[in-house]
Amino acid sequence: MYLPKHFAVDDQDALLQLMRERPLATLVLNGPDGPDANHIPLHARQTDGQLRLCGHVARANPLWRRLDGQTMALAIFHGDDAYVTPSWYPAKAEHGKVVPTWNYAVVHAHGRLRAVEDPAWLRGLLESLTREHEAEFEPPWRMADAPAYYLDRMMQAIVGIELTVARLEGKFKLSQNQDEASRGGVRRGLSASADPRAQWLAARMAERT
């Protein structure tokens, strides 16, 4: 990823926050016919000082059969994005030497990817995911709400995957390369937008610029 220093984010807490807010990752590895991408929710876990991204795929998905524990992969987590109009820059009225751009936030997690067929590991992951994502619902759905024989059948149809993260890269393109007046104009413009993606970026700008 092209990563100019003014857009680079090294704050792991900020990167983890985005990964947890937007868990649907684009998981990329080299396949027999070139790069292969799958879109998989990944759960970030810190164990023994090591960040691991855990998820599962359908057993019918050939991805897991290509994993030998040493397979390198890239998981891309996407924050929100929005168009930035030159009209938000004060310089437009001063000299007109401004152009449009696009602001966004992404996290790239590089590491080795392995398949996990341990039923206890997989059940623990599913229970953790269910607790996390059902917390906002009342009443929350629990795995115990489904018949045991049905859950067993569903679990037999999936395989766990785990990416052990060796390197994290964050790119938050939030107009940091602009002067203070321009950044303020962009932030106000995004805040006033009816698009929640723009408002999300405005909030990130308020935190970081």
Provide structural commentary.
The chain is 31% helix and 37% strand. It is α+β, with helices and mostly antiparallel strands and 209 residues long. It has one domain: Electron Transport, Fmn-binding Protein, Chain A (Pnp Oxidase, Chain A, Roll). A hairpin with a 2-residue loop joins β4 and β5 (50-58). The mean pLDDT is 93. It comes from Chromobacterium sphagni.
Summarize, please:
The chain has 209 residues and is an alpha+beta fold.
Q: Topology of this protein?
A:
Elements: E1 8-9, H1 12-21, E2 24-31, E3 34-41, E4 43-47, E5 50-58, E6 71-84, H2 91-94, E7 101-116, H3 119-134, H4 148-156, E8 158-173, H5 180-192, H6 196-208
Antiparallel strand pairs: 1-8, 2-3, 2-6, 4-5, 5-8, 6-7, 7-8
Helix pairs in contact: 5-6
CATH top level is: Mainly Beta
Query: At CATH's second level, what is the architecture?
Result: Roll
How much is the average pLDDT?
Answer: 93
CATH topology: Pnp Oxidase, Chain A
Helix coverage percent? 25-40%
Order of helices and strands: EHEEEEEHEHHEHH
* CATH level-4 homologous superfamily: Electron Transport, Fmn-binding Protein, Chain A
What global shape is seen? elongated
Strand content is 35-45%
Structural class: alpha+beta
Separation of termini?
22 Å
Oligomer: single chain
The biggest beta sheet is recorded as: 8 strands, antiparallel
| Number of self-contained structural domains | 1
pLDDT < 50 runs, ≥5 residues: none
How many H/I helices? 6
Question: Quick one: how many beta strands?
Answer: 8
What value does the Rg take, in angstroms? 21 Å
